[in-house]
């Protein structure tokens, strides 16, 4: 989801692309549940056929699965792409369970978990009728090393062994550490044992791409489908339509329901306009879904009639403000700690709609991550900020007379409001915050390029699967800082943190590892590379003819697109 952030995110960067509310994330999350039961309302049975409408503020970051890495686009990818494994299709914990997709199982480890073997199912084809082979999977994965293309999920590059000079198949040719002994078998050789590699191969970078294809921007304009739908029309920033891929065989796919005949996205809509249309529910909007409701509309959807169409839950991600420690005076830990103390998180929450739409964040990992510790390293009365303690730290750091910081943010009303809340909170400390708005569709690409990012950035992160391994290492392992697609926005490269990440990675007990990540959260926050802001909630209103809808814990709490459909395909 990567980015919540993507997500993922990063893992992924967090993002609800349905409404354009994107966050830097990994892409899993947790805790979201639908308001409806399995027999009525949004959760009822879906009919076969019809066109499902999606109303969105912002377009997708990338259609190329090696490039996109936020919760919203990761959700979309499952309609047109398949991976060796994938997350389940269900609400709650069942949705984040890793299940086979293109592969017959979730992988067979050998050499103590350093080598993993997968076997492809029979009857797998691309949209053009060509069979999907292990060579196509290898080609798709190898693209992750391309410096221009592979800016999405980082796990393949971090975990799979590869020559230090390898730059993807277009520049460096064959990757010898991925073997394809026959058309159905693919063998991955890892840098070190990785007990959860069966979850890694569910990442978007494991989408098969026909050998020799996908160079440059090819897949951003014309994806090559391996899933139940294929691209029919695409006008970036305006609209996108998917229709059935007749080469997809339901017998090979236990995850995707694929009941609608088509999906139609409309991008570029004002969030307030989306709310008005969803509340009115007229015309084709009865067949529509959208992103989370805007704060100004929350009170209006409390009527019994509209409540029947609402779905709500915790998004499973953390919204935070990254502090770029390579920039002065943020290179001084005391300054970063002062900012953590000074931010008024109540006003930040008010900016997104209050307690209905968010809980206040105190730690990096959200409540839905296993092993997470509930603590507050920078407390203040009612979370409104402690200016005096912050001022004392700035005086100690020698910057009590003030300084200027630039804050990267997205061009969306909610994100602008959050940025203003931060700006106002730091004013009493003589810290001038200049807000730098960046278009949502390119936001993560900009802030993920260290040469372009400014002093601070409001973003978010969601775990890519239910493990602490997908939250802290992607965001804070200094050895993974890259020139593009960088998820370590603070650019923290601390020897102690890096060593602890290595120590936890050696644990074979997942429960013990997650508990250790909970303690690592504390160790990182002592360095104050980020300001945890919110654990945002999802509140969605769907059309009266929508069925099969539930909020998926793995995609920033968004509606799972592989299961949603229409109650009556004739409407």
TrEMBL record:
Xref: Pfam families: SBP_bac_5
BP-aspect Gene Ontology terms: peptide transport
Keyword 4Fe-4S included in the entry's annotation: no
Keywords: Signal
CDD domains linked: PBP2_clavulanate_OppA2
Record's GO cellular component terms: ATP-binding cassette (ABC) transporter complex; periplasmic space
GO MF, one example: peptide transmembrane transporter activity
Signal peptide range in chain numbering: 1-26
Gene3D superfamilies in alphabetical order: Dipeptide-binding Protein, Domain 3 (3.10.105.10), Periplasmic binding protein-like II (3.40.190.10)
Name by which UniProt lists this protein: Peptide/nickel transport system substrate-binding protein
Coiled coil stretches, renumbered: none
């Amino acid at each position: 989801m990567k980015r919540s952030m993507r997500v993922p995110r990063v893992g992924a960067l967090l993002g609800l692309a349905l409404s354009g509310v994107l966050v830097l994330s990994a892409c899993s999350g947790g805790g979201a549940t639908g308001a409806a039961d399995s027999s009525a309302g949004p959760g009822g049975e879906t009919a076969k056929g019809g066109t499902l409408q999606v109303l969105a503020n912002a377009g997708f970051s990338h259609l190329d699965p090696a490039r996109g890495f936020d919760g919203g686009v990761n959700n979309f990818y499952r309609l047109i792409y398949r991976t060796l494994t994938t997350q389940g299709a269900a609400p709650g914990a069942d949705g984040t369970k890793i299940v086979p997709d293109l592969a017959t199982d979730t992988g067979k480890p050998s050499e103590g978990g350093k080598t993993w073997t997968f076997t492809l199912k029979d009857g797998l084809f691309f949209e053009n009728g060509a069979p999907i082979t292990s060579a196509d999977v290898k080609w798709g994965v190898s693209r992750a090393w391309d410096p221009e293309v592979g800016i999405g999920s980082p796990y393949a590059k971090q975990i799979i062994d590869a020559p230090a000079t390898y730059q993807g198949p277009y520049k460096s040719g064959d990757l010898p550490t991925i073997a394809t002994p026959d058309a159905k078998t693919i063998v991955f050789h890892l840098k070190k044992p990785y007990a959860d590699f069966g979850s890694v191969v569910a990442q978007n970078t494991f989408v098969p791409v026909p050998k020799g294809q996908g160079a440059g921007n090819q897949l951003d304009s014309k994806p090559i489908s391996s899933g139940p739908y294929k691209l029919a029309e695409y006008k970036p920033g305006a609209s996108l339509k998917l229709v059935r891929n007749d080469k997809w065989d339901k017998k090979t796919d236990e995850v995707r329901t694929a009941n609608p005949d088509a999906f139609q996205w409309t991008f570029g809509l004002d969030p307030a306009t989306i709310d008005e249309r969803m509340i009115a529910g007229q015309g084709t909007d009865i067949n529509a879904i959208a992103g989370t409701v805007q704060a100004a509309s929350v009170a209006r959807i409390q009527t019994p009639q509209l409540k029947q169409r609402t779905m709500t839950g915790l998004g499973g991600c953390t919204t935070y403000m990254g502090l770029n420690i390579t920039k002065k005076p943020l290179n001084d830990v005391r300054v970063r700690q002062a900012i953590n103390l000074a931010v008024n998180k109540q006003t930040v929450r008010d900016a997104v709609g209050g307690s209905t739409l968010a809980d206040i964040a105190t730690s990096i990992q959200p409540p839905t991550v296993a092993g997470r510790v509930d603590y507050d390293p920078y407390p203040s009365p009612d979370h409104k900020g402690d200016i005096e303690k912050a001022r004392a730290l700035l005086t100690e750091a020698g910057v009590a007379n003030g300084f200027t910081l630039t804050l990267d943010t997205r061009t969306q009303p909610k994100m602008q409001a959050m940025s203003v809340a931060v700006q106002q909170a730091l004013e009493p400390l003589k810290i001038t915050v200049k807000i730098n708005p960046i278009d949502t569709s390119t936001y993560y690409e900009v802030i993920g390029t260290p040469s372009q990012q400014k002093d601070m950035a409001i973003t978010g992160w969601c775990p890519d699967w239910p493990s602490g391994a997908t939250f802290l290492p992607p965001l804070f392992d200094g050895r993974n800082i890259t020139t593009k697609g960088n998820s370590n926005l603070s650019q923290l490269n601390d020897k102690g943190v890096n060593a602890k990440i290595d120590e936890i990675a050696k644990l074979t007990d997942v429960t013990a590892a997650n508990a250790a990540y909970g303690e690592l959260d504390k160790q990182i926050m002592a360095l104050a590379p980020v300001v945890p802001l919110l654990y945002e909630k999802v509140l969605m209103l769907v059309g009266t003819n929508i069925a099969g809808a539930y909020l998926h814990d793995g995609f920033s709490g968004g509606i799972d697109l592989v299961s949603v459909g229409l109650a009556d395909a004739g409407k």
